Amino acid sequence: MHIDLHCHSTASDGALAPAAVVARAHARGVRVLALTDHDTLEGLGEARQAAAALPDMQLVSGIELSCTWGGATIHVLGYGFSAESPELLRAIEDLHHGRWARAEEIGRRLEAKGMPGAFVGARDVQMELGDSANAPARPHFAEFLVRAGHVADRGEAFRKWLGAGKIGDVKQHWPTLEQAVGTLRAAGAWISLAHPIQYDFTRSKRRKLLADFIRAGGHGLEVVNGLQPAEQTGTLAILAREFGLLVSAGSDFHAPTDWSELGMYRPIPEDLPLLAARLKLAANAAEHAGAPDVAVH
Ligand code: MN
Ligand code: MN
Ligand code: MN
Question: Separation of 110 CA from ligand 2 center, angstroms?
């Protein structure tokens, strides 16, 4: 596909560096790409440089923000925003601090259970994988526990110490849906609700989520996420029409696999108004995007 509005790099949980993501997308025929790393803008500079070196490649600023709604963690996608927005930078800074505080708390809890040096050890594991300003996460702690001989393997680390409900399962504090959408609005973003089928909601709860998302200022629905089953696209297309939302689509690429690749996702039903058409793209790319004229919330 020509446009891919959802993918990840090593700036969050992807396997490829931002420049490698751009190069791979371009080689696969993508000409408009949004790098949407989780809760960070870290990869955008490198991605933008890589895209600028390719004459027919456009990079759209993107981010996938985590937030809470109805007791669940929800992801919202922001596009085409100002990366200098003070509101956005402050929100990302808060999340960044939150992740460090969480890692330190995991370390304290493991040390209290007789596993000294957990925090520093996890950080060392992380830095071996690649220089990062981000806090170490549970996989890094798991590897530390293996190396220090506290567990036999990473699986045991999660079963005993780090998995859901265990002492190392420290919850991250996320903003609310309203706050996350508000932050993206303040930065001038076009906002799409990511993979709405992936949340474990009843139909009526999903409808309530859409109503609240629109009330908060959201514009679109990600009707196609990678190779999701066709009936899910059908369900989401019906909701997009009913709620008058723009639609977005993307591969949600994290690493090259048989079922995930840059530019690879199911087709968008043709009658739907594309969020991509609202982004400030060069004329040829905007033409590809279809540029429908619809009312937007
Ligand atoms: Mn991810
Ligand atoms: Mn997501
Ligand atoms: Mn994603």
Answer: 29
